[in-house]
Design a protein that fits this description.
The chain is an alpha/beta fold and 580 residues long. Helices cover 63% and strands 9% of the residues. The strands form 2 sheets. The protein has a 6-stranded mixed sheet with strand order 6-7-8-3-9-10. Helix 6 (110-152) packs antiparallel against helix 8 (164-201), helix 15 crosses helix 17 (473-487) and helix 17 (473-487) packs parallel to helix 18 (503-517). The chain is elongated. The two termini are 68 Å apart. The model is unreliable at 572-580 (pLDDT under 50).
């Protein structure tokens, strides 16, 4: 872990070296005051060397002015190093998140992921800045002050230093408990962030069902867990600091007693005794700094560990010799496809389907039968393991294709449309960022949304709000269709694209979808069977198996499950009997 942390220092090594040199000079300058104090008490005052007193004072003042500038450099550029490292970690983490498979997001809440990117990395930033400085300054000050104390009175110095092992033992004893407690606190903080993200995202549902009280209770529960975890963490920290502070207080008691005895016995002069008292603080203060640094160190280490937890997640895999999918014709074949999210429960079992170029295959059947899973497997969102069949496009196994080239050639329109914060133009351009304005307008026209956009005050530059909250369901759906028109894929997946719309809006969108399907190989999942009557082939998927296949007329004539579903859906229509 240490090597991986140090790697983030490498781009800033020159600035880091300058920062450490400045820190070292700060430590050295700190030793000037006790040396001057000793000379004044033992030489300048007894021998009335007034010029030397003034000169020494001026020298100390100048050195302190230099130390002020050095501290400014350390504080400013040290934090700059930390922020830049934090920025690089954040970029690495965000980039890695883009490469993780669907399964990762199935098992991790958005709020918890956000905690890793924000508060966790802030703690890492603080450690990156203060860690090297505190360790260097404190170590140098302890070494220099200890050496200087030896020159004053080595016996008294060794007596004081004998307390250090006790301090180390106390530190080690309480550190483990504090580490565990702060890890729990950080996890509880992630729970709160997850609850807030979920509640804010679903605020309209909360208000619609008047469940604000329940959301407050859920948040309160998470908040109580955080308070309890924080109490345990601060209790461990209180034990740590109170114990270590007591040990450092013992230093002063030892100096008081032992120094007094040495002075009484004539083994130390009054000037050296006064200097020793001043100098011993140069030894105790960095020891205290290291002790206080333990909390920041623990926070930073915990944050970096949580950062690495995600960075160590395996990204989506593709074959080392994966090739580009080019000149796509659009022929699709599922061969003996078997898949399970959970090894104990199959979702699909030996699915065999073939879809020729430019044809439309509709998947129907009860919810949970595996239709959407088939749609997710085609763009390799979930990887099909060896031995569980294969999915081929133009005769090539999708596992042998690069993920980017595969997904570039597949367009997806879903029931739950996701739009990004930004303008209408930016959301349509998501289909092909380098498209011209005219291409954007043409895509919108073909999606039956252009005329509506032109009625808006800012037209294509209208902000749509978070997740397109300022648009209706039908408008959001048509924007997503425009996005696919702009992408212009050879293969199209329509996953219940019209199931949540009213009849009038559905007609507009169905027209847009029919236009979108022209010349493309299309896989359709639909609950409204009226929308897929003209499909080239319909497959009934139940409990992970294809139970019926054929055209609408063939399946109605067969009198199986499809006919039952169709009759059930249109039982109130007078004309259903003609089809039956």
């Amino acid at each position: 872990m240490l090597k991986r942390f140090i790697r983030y220092y490498r781009p800033h090594k020159k600035l880091l070296v300058m920062d450490l040199i400045a820190s070292l000079l700060i430590s050295v300058i700190g030793m000037v005051y006790p040396i001057v104090t000793r000379n004044m008490l033992n030489i300048y005052f007894p021998e009335q060397m007034y010029n030397a007193i003034v000169i020494a004072g001026v020298v100390v003042l100048v050195l302190y002015a230099i130390r002020m500038l050095l501290r400014y450099f350390v504080q400013y550029y040290g934090h700059v190093i930390g922020v830049r490292m934090q920025s690089q970690m954040r970029k690495d983490l965000f980039d890695h998140l883009q490469k993780l498979p669907y399964s990762f997001y199935d098992n991790h809440e958005t709020g918890r992921i956000m905690t890793r990117i924000t508060s966790d990395l802030f703690e890492v930033c603080e450690l990156a800045h203060h860690g090297p400085e505190n360790l260097l300054i404190s170590s140098v000050m302890i070494l220099l002050s200890f050496t200087y104390l030896l020159t004053i009175n080595w016996i008294l110095t060794l007596i004081v230093f004998a307390c250090v092992p006790i301090l180390v033992a106390v530190t080690v004893h309480y550190r483990k408990a504090m580490n565990s407690a702060f890890d729990d606190r950080r996890k509880s903080n992630a729970t709160i962030n997850a609850a807030v993200e979920s509640s804010v995202t679903g605020i309209r549902v909360t208000k619609a069902y008047t469940n604000a009280k329940r959301e407050v209770e859920k948040f309160g529960k998470g908040d109580e867990e955080f308070v309890d975890a924080s109490a345990r963490a601060y209790q461990a920290m209180a034990k740590f600091f109170s114990s270590t502070s007591f040990v450092t207080d013992v230093f002063n008691v030892i100096i008081l007693i032992a120094g007094g005895l040495f002075l009484y016995a004539g083994k130390i002069t009054e000037g050296d005794y006064a200097t020793f008292i001043v100098s011993v603080n140069l030894f105790i203060n960095p020891v205290n700094t290291l002790i206080n640094f333990m909390e920041q160190f623990q926070n930073g280490v915990s944050g970096f560990k949580r950062f690495l937890e995600i960075m160590d997640e395996q990204p989506e895999q593709e074959s080392p010799d994966a090739k580009e999918l080019l000149d796509v014709q659009g022929e699709i074949e599922f061969r003996d496809v078997t898949y399970a999210y959970d090894p104990t429960k199959e979702v699909l079992h030996q699915i065999n389907l073939r879809l020729e170029k430019g044809r439309k295959l509709a998947l129907v059947g009860p919810s949970g039968g595996g239709k959407t899973t088939l749609c997710h497997l085609l763009p390799n969102f979930y990887r099909l393991e060896e031995g569980n069949g294969s999915i081929r496009i133009d005769g090539v196994d999708i596992r042998e294709l690069t993920l980017d080239s595969l997904r570039r050639n597949i367009g997806i329109v879903q029931q739950d449309v996701f739009l990004f914060v930004g303008t209408i133009r930016e959301n349509i351009l998501y289909g092909r960022p380098d498209a011209t304005d005219e291409e954007v307008y043409e895509a919108a026209r073909r999606a039956n949304i252009h005329e509506y956009i032109m009625t808006l005050e800012n037209g294509y530059d209208t902000e749509i709000g978070e997740r397109g909250v300022k648009l209706s369901g039908g408008q959001k759906q048509r924007l997503s269709i425009a996005r696919v028109f702009l992408k212009d894929p050879a293969i199209l997946i329509l996953d219940e694209a019209t199931s949540a719309l009213d009849n009038t809006t559905e007609v507009l969108i169905q027209q847009a979808l029919d236009e979108l399907c022209k010349g493309r190989t299309t896989l359709v999942v639909a609950h409204r069977l009226s929308t897929i009557r003209n499909a080239d082939e319909i497959a009934v998927v139940m409990e992970g198996r294809v139970t019926e296949r054929g055209t609408h007329e063939e399946l109605i004539a067969a009198g199986g499950v499809y006919k039952e579903l169709y009759a059930l859906q249109f039982r109130d229509n007078d004309w259903i009997g003609e089809d039956v």
